[in-house]
Specification:
The structure is a homodimer. By secondary structure, chain A is of the alpha+beta class. Chains A and B meet through helix 1 and helix 5 of A and helix 1 and helix 5 of B. Chains A, B: GO terms for molecular function: DNA binding.
Chain lengths: ~120, ~120
Amino acid sequence: MPNQVAGAGHRAAPVHTDPEDVSVLTALSAVSDPVRLTLIRELAGSADWTRSCGSFDVPVGKAALSHHFSVLRGAGLVEQRDEGPKRVNRLRREEFEKRFPGLLALLLRDEGAVDAE
Amino acid sequence: MPNQVAGAGHRAAPVHTDPEDVSVLTALSAVSDPVRLTLIRELAGSADWTRSCGSFDVPVGKAALSHHFSVLRGAGLVEQRDEGPKRVNRLRREEFEKRFPGLLALLLRDEGAVDAE
């Protein structure tokens, strides 16, 4: 019996949105959430394809996490692929920067300042 | 009897937040709303202090509009003052730009592209 609960893979391949097709409102909505901001920041500090969905330190359940990744894909921020039982991620740094210059830098520049200010 | 319903003034003076005290998450949440994005864009196209709260073309009631302006003040984006019966506005362009470089430009650059893309 496949380990569907513990593993994150063996699902339909994730659907992606090209950053060029993302509106500014969609991009802003995607990044104006504390959990997604944490995901983006952790991804930015990791090499491409090294982080599985389960490796992030965020206080949400599996279904909510899946939703957050879906929003990030829909905003052209994150690309995912399945590697065996794991779904691994990369931040679409260059493509997103080309579409929304400076936005990613703002998100990463203020690291740790969300609660402190 | 004062015309409290039709007029927008004669309330307690609005409370403002300095952009320097605004977190990136607060700023992003403030601008990731279609009504507030419209308010920001209309303000950006108007001279300071020329736009009263009732002069914006947004599909919301008075209470909701008041809330949206409160959010914009809280993000350091808008300054308001009462002039007779009217509450007039200005976009805090320079202060906000200093705190979040490039963000306002992103919001204004994509004008009209929210639904089209």
